[in-house]
Amino acid sequence: MASRRHLVATLLLLIGSVAAQNGIECPFPGGTENGGGVAECSLYTACLWKGSECVMQNNGDIGYTVAGDPQDTGRGFKVGLDLIDATKTLFGGDIPGLELEVIYHEDYHVQVKIRDAASARYEVPVPLTLPAEAGTLPLYTVEVAAAGQPFEMSISRAATGTKVFSTVGALVYENQFIQFTTQLPSTYLYGFGENTHSRLRHTFEPRNTWPIFARDQPVGTGFMNEYGHHPYYSVVEDDAGHTHSVLFFNSNAMEYSTFLLSDGSPALTLRTIGGIIDLHFFFGPTPEDVNMQYAAMIGTTELPPYWSLGFHLSRWGYKSTDHVREVRQRMKEAGIPQDVQVIDIDYMENSRDFTIGAGNWSDLPQLVEELHSDGLKVTLILDPAVVIDFDNYEPVVRGRDADAFIKWMTPSLVPGDQPAGTNDYMVGYVWPDNKTVFPDFLKPETQDWWAQEIALFHQMVPFDSLWIDMNEPSNFGTNLDKPSNYPDDLEPWSLKCPFNFLDSPPYPTKMTRVGFSRSGRISDRTLCMSGAQTNGNDSYLLYDTHSLYGWSESVATHKAMELLFPGKRQLVLSRSTFPGSAPYAIHWLGDNEALWDDLARSVIGLIEFNLFGMPMVGADICGFSGRPTQELCARWMQLGAFYPFSRNHNAKNSPDQDPAVHPQVAEISKDVLLLRYKYLPYLYTLLHDAHMGGSSVVRPLYNVFPRDVIARDVDDQFFWGTGIMVAPVIAAGLTERDVYFPEGLWYDLASGARVSSLAGLVNVAAPLEVLPVFVRGGTILPNQAPATTTQLSRENPFGLTIALDSAFSAEGALFWDDGEYDRVMTYTSTFTFANNTLTSVVTNGQDELVGLSFDNVAFYGYPSNPTAITVNGEALDPSTWAFEEAIGVLNVKIDVPLDVSLDIQITV
Ligand SMILES: *[C@@H]1O[C@H](CO)[C@@H](O)[C@H](O)[C@H]1NC(C)=O
Ligand SMILES: *[C@@H]1O[C@H](CO)[C@@H](O)[C@H](O)[C@H]1NC(C)=O
Ligand SMILES: *[C@@H]1O[C@H](CO)[C@@H](O)[C@H](O)[C@H]1NC(C)=O
Ligand SMILES: *[C@@H]1O[C@H](CO)[C@@H](O)[C@H](O)[C@H]1NC(C)=O
């Protein structure tokens, strides 16, 4: 089989001479955007000045040659690569001999690793699920240049011959700098994060460079690296919508650059400052296939507990338990659905984890019980940093006993002013009233200690879920005189990082020039790279594992919650994420602002995290910092009602912005959240699909319509699954908006009225109280009469919204279970409407269904008033249905238990 998969090219024409003309940018540590020029260019012997730019020398003059013939490994092949000219370098430390290994996985999945042939380098310790055997009908072919030729590699889609990855120019592989460039088959490039992208689709002209490295960096423009690390992209290759995706499995500080080659073709440069090249390619062929294939490798999302699909209310700056009570009362009086009350660090004593603030917060346990009896769940925040008050704070003492904290990599780096009792731990400062140390969550002993502290805390406060914030990890004022919140009466102090190869790497990436970056170093607002972590067997440099911190804390926290709530599904909300986080945590998009632009960009963030395999995602509704206008907050509540994770949250010192504050916003929020709650069974079914098979929940239009070229640029609308399309109003002062409708029939979700035109842009009315949201013809949406909590709505009757396509047919499914426990046998029903007959197939009717039934079916796009309707063989009385001729909606009242198959026949 191997020969079918890789063709070792015997001849590659003129590769070397094309490269320089192609203009692969020579990377300047301070950035090329500010000039740099010929003088700086001359510092790098691997570069040359060409016209007005500094470019990499030709492949063949620099880079690697293929050292011999490929060796079959049974799962692929290996081939050596030899450095061509050790005198030509960017930053030195070029690896003389590399080994390229191609590993065939599933038919849709191939991996390419390039390592140091002589010694091991850091590889990402996050486990992946890989198949035991290769597939037999690969969707791809791999070509590598022949022995003796400059290294070149391309990977093609077998069915079309499209080169999805095709190296351009020389490979650079230095100890602390790796760079390669690929031509892309099209400009339909999506993904990479965590960054705030202003458009979903990437652009190539002018060149754009984005850093990736976990950082406590609020969202916004300016090419900033933010909380998570997701070096993953996908490309729609052609008009037919063939799509592939690529994971660059590397956790070091990196950047990606999009630009046009001199022949006009789109290209992508990837640079990292550590680790190895480890690429996973997924061949789809559809955009949704790619999502499922990627999620199968990194781990699918946990199915969130049903209550977490409800509305979450949060803020930083609740003044007391009474303040929370007041807000909750206001929400109830306004009739606004709410399932979760979230409490930020305000509840703690001096911002210390596992404590309850004296005075205003001392009755927190009682508040939690009250909220529980009110049908709500409670989420509490935890930060990773642990205060070093060894005399008065037991968690840190027990943590030190477990040796649970991140250390300096060598004792010689421990600062002279190291606080007493902190051993060789790296000491920083965050929210608490004293300096802190940071748990090493990779370490089994740390995970045990963390679980124990969480369990002890739960004995004090019976919270339901945890929000783990600040886990990039964030440290204030690193390398500065002092953190901005450091006590004024103390000698200024901050964590200061050494100037060594780790904390002052030769190429610090663009991250040092964007966003906060107050110290201009890669350790800005975080711990020093010269730290050490261990998983018990292997030790790691923080330089390499920095971006895994949020992932490792998610794993540890999830384990702790499993011990606390055996058999239950957990909700852990994490700010920092990495590929592999989804089974352990959900995500929100971080600190945004009460701005229309941030509202608009949240749609892009939602879609991107669904590409990254983390479907349970949302942004802070109404904006975290700043004060929203009532209009903005109303529009954001409407959009946020269709965030899978729907939470309103704001910052300290801003006034309350819960939806009940202002009567008009309250009314709008109530209506739109009741619409959300009505369709939660559909959202739950989609999340269950995501859990089982890795599908996405929030989808861009091109995902549902891959051949629709216009849809590939639409990023102010999105789908839930393939059935509901949301078109939020994203700017001020509007009472209408243009909505792009791909081919098909479309109906207003709430009224069932048909959208009056065929494919294309349609102007729809959107007065402030209206969120434009549509259902696609051909879809059956399960629903349930809404209530103000899911505890109540889960008792209500179910219904089906049946939106007909042009053949008067539709299909859908419903997943249901008890909402909290992991079960093997759970209820699924699939529905088909065709030829005027609705049928369902029920599997695994269970006891939790007792008392639940369907009480209505609504047909959208029905042509005429029926003469007769039978349900499971019995004729209905005509008074049980109503036909609204003007909008073509047929409402039928039925009464059929959920676990009984439906058979509804309509006679026209
Ligand atoms: C304590 O709670 C009251 C009532 O909510 C509030 O007015 C006061 O500012 C709070 N005190 C502090 C220190 O937050
Ligand atoms: C931390 O605790 C020590 C010992 O109680 C105290 O001297 C110091 O002022 C505290 N605060 C900070 C910010 O270190
Ligand atoms: C450490 O090594 C032991 C023995 O090989 C293994 O069972 C364990 O899973 C390893 N732990 C980690 C975190 O890799
Ligand atoms: C609907 O009727 C047509 C023509 O009788 C038949 O071919 C088709 O299979 C039917 N579809 C279903 C779902 O019963």
Automatic annotation (TrEMBL):
Domain Glycoside hydrolase family 31 TIM barrel: 302-686
Record Gene3D superfamilies: Glycosidases, glycosyl hydrolase (family 31), Golgi alpha-mannosidase II
Domain Glycosyl hydrolase family 31 C-terminal: 694-781
One of the record's GO molecular function terms: carbohydrate binding
GO biological process, any: carbohydrate metabolic process
InterPro entries reported in the protein's UniProt record: Gal_mutarotase_sf_dom, GH, Glyco_hydro_31_C, Glyco_hydro_31_CS, Glyco_hydro_31_TIM, Glyco_hydro_b
Keyword terms of this UniProt record: Glycoprotein, Glycosidase, Hydrolase, Signal
Endpoints of the signal sequence: 1-20
The family this protein is said to belong to: Belongs to the glycosyl hydrolase 31 family.
Full protein name: Sucrase-isomaltase, intestinal isoform X1
Organism for this UniProt entry: Hyalella azteca
